[in-house]
Amino acid sequence: MNLARESFIQKDYDKTFYYLKNAEEDGIHSGIFWYYLGISVHYRGNESAAKRYLKKVFKNFGCWECSEAYEKLYSKKLKF
Predict the structure, then answer these.
(1) How many structural domains comprise the chain?
(2) Domain span including residue 53
(3) Does residue 40 belong to any structural domain of this protein?
(4) Which domain of life is it from (predicted)?
(5) Does residue 80 form part of some domain?
(6) What span, in angstroms and rounded, lies between the C-alpha atoms of 18 and 46?
(7) Dihedrals φ, ψ of 76, to 5°?
(8) For residue 68, with 0-12 CB atoms within 10 Å meaning exposed, 13-18 middle and 19 or more buried, which class applies?
(9) Which label site among 44, 55, 61, 80 has the fewest CB atoms less than 10 Å from its CB?
(10) Is the model's pLDDT at 29 over the cut of 90?
């Protein structure tokens, strides 16, 4: 997850996605995992997956940053 975070900060979303997929295989499914995954797949062009991941992390983990990101990307508010 540290490598994914560093790649995310550098806005290298392909590397972020790669590191997240490896983390997923290791069983890591934290809120920050789904947030990074949602943003990285958005920038890789997969809108439907990005929406799904950001909704999931907001509903399951209460991630307000995810709600704000969703609102900025799609001009819609998420609700519980």
Answers:
(1) 1
(2) 2-74
(3) yes
(4) Bacteria
(5) no
(6) 15
(7) -135, 150
(8) middle
(9) 80
(10) no
